[in-house]
Design goal:
alpha/beta; globular; binds shikimate-3-phosphate; five-stranded parallel β-sheet; 166 residues; single chain
C-alpha cells in the first residue's frame, strides 16, 4: 500500500490520528516534526528561533524526500509542508493526501496550551490562525480528501480516514 500523508493546519489532529491509525492498520507511524527534532537535536521552536523559517522549510523538504522512499506509512506532516509545490508533487506520487481541517476557534482551543508552535506564539493567535488559513487554503484544497475534525472525536476521524484507505 502507498503512504498516507496527513496534511492540514496545526491543531487539526494529524499526529494523534496518524498514531492511532498506524496502530490499527499495522502500518508505520511517522511524524515529520519528530524526525526534524531528532535530526537537528533541537525543538521546533528552537529551530525557528536559532535558524529561521527558511532553514526549517529546507530541512522539512529533505526529510520528506527521505521518508517518501519508504511505503506502508501513515505520515503526520507539519502544517506548512503544502506551501512547496515539490512537496505536493512528491506526496501525490508516493501516496494519498488526506487533509484534516477545523474551524479557527477550534484550532485555537486545541493549540493554546501548547508553546511548541512558534507561528502561534503571538499576541493575537486567532487572527494569526485566520491569516495563515487564508494564505494556505488553496494548498490544502489540493489534498485527495478533506475531513473536518471540528465536531467529531478522534475515534471518528480515525474511522473516516481508515475507510478511505481500505
Ligand atoms: C507549522 C506546523 C507545525 C510545525 C511548525 C510549522 C506550520 O507542525 O511543523 O511549527 O507552518 O503550520 P504541526 O502542524 O504538526 O503542529
Amino acid at each position: 500500500m502507498k503512504n498516507i500523508y496527513l496534511i492540514g493546519f496545526m491543531g487539526t489532529g494529524k499526529t494523534s490520528v496518524a498514531r492511532e491509525l498506524a496502530k490499527q492498520k499495522e502500518m508505520t507511524f511517522v511524524d515529520l516534526d519528530d524526525l526534524m527534532e531528532i535530526k537537528e537535536g533541537l525543538a521546533i521552536t528552537e529551530i525557528f528561533a536559532q535558524k529561521g523559517e527558511t532553514y526549517f522549510r529546507d530541512s522539512e523538504k529533505k526529510i520528506l524526500v527521505g521518508v517518501s522512499r519508504n511505503d506502508f506509512q501513515i505520515i503526520s506532516c507539519g502544517g506548512g509542508i503544502v506551501m512547496d509545490k515539490d512537496n505536493i508533487a512528491l506526496m501525490k506520487n508516493t501516496g494519498i493526501m488526506v487533509c484534516l481541517s477545523a474551524r479557527p476557534e477550534v484550532i485555537l482551543t486545541r493549540t493554546k496550551n501548547y508553546g511548541h508552535r512558534p507561528l502561534l506564539n503571538v499576541d493575537n493567535p486567532v487572527n494569526k490562525i485566520k491569516e495563515l488559513l487564508k494564505e494556505r487554503s488553496h494548498f490544502y484544497a489540493l489534498a485527495d480528501y478533506n475531513i473536518d475534525t471540528s465536531d467529531i472525536s478522534l475515534k471518528e476521524v480515525v474511522k473516516k480516514v481508515s475507510e478511505l484507505i481500505v
